[in-house]
Structures are given as C-alpha cells and as structure tokens.
Amino acid sequence: MTTAIGEQNAKTPTLDRLTPEEFKSVFRKHPAGVTVITLRDQDRMVGFTATSVISVSADPPLLAFSVAGQSSSWPPLSKAATIVVNFLTAAQANLSARFATSGIDRFARGGWSLLDTGEPFLQGSGNWVRGRIVQRTPVGSSFLVCVEALSSSVCDTEQATDQDALVYADRIYHKLSTRSAL
Questions:
Q1: Number of folded domains in the chain?
Q2: What residues make up the domain containing 62?
Q3: What is the pTM (predicted TM-score) of this model?
Q4: Own/partner pairs for 93-98, CB < 8 Å, 24+ apart?
C-alpha cells in the first residue's frame, strides 16, 4: 500500500526530509536540457524557461513538465488548451535567460513567430513540439502538466549549423554535442 506525501502511516516512523535548499542543491548538479514553453493567452504571448520537460510515453506521444504555482505564467497556463515546447540550442542561451527573467515582456525583442494554429514558437529552436494539455496535477507548490504531442518540427542536424543542445547544470549553461560523447 502506498502512502501519499505528507501522510503518516501509524506503523511507519516519521522520516526526516531535505530542506528546500538541500533539495535544490542536489538538482543543481543534475544536468537538464533547456526548453521554453510558449502559449497564447488571447492576444498576449506567454513564455517561460523550463528544464523539467520529460518524455512520458511514445504511444500515445506524451510529455510533461512542472511549473511553480506562484509563477506569473501559471494563470494563463492553467486555462490554455495548447502550448509549444521549444527545445533550445546552445546558440540560444540568451533566449533561455530572457524567458527566465521575471517582470519583462519576454517577446518584445522578437525572434518568434506564430504557427498556423496560433501558438507562438521561437525561431531557430533546434526542435519544437506543439501539444494539447491533457492534465494539470497539483504537486506540492507546483503543477505537473501533461501534454499530448500533436505536431513537431525537427531540425536536420546535417544541414544545420550550431544545433548543439543547450544544457543547464550548476547554474551554468553548457553545450552538448556529438563531440562530447564518451
């Protein structure tokens, strides 16, 4: 029998847990691919940097990511039907920083277009996936958002230049390329 987080089983002793800072320090050392989630909220474009994107299922094609409940992007995301996940390249570290900055118009400096379906996407992204949100689950102080992939654009790496993946670890951007393979 499983026990929900925070519940105590009468036979199980209470276990200590990491503080939020201890937990964050563990994940700072865990490299993650960098994406920017973009969506449209009526006439306003919304976007934020996310390093929590994971593949959930190939059949049906599902992915998921988490977003903090106190994020300024959460209210529009909580009612959005579709989004675009932009997988950033090493040449786009500046976009990641821009979309991670609070209190600015993240789309003001350009570098984006609208898909025929109306969602914004970032020009020059290595790959992107347009998807329909199928589930939003509150987890702790965040939400886990599950998305069914509807369409994508995959960069042809043989014809592209500077398409190395952007990775974030220990508060520093890194480039992941075929030349870094072990």
A1: 1
A2: 32-153
A3: 0.86
A4: 93/34, 93/166, 93/173, 95/36, 95/122, 96/34, 96/36, 96/49, 96/166, 96/168, 96/173, 97/49
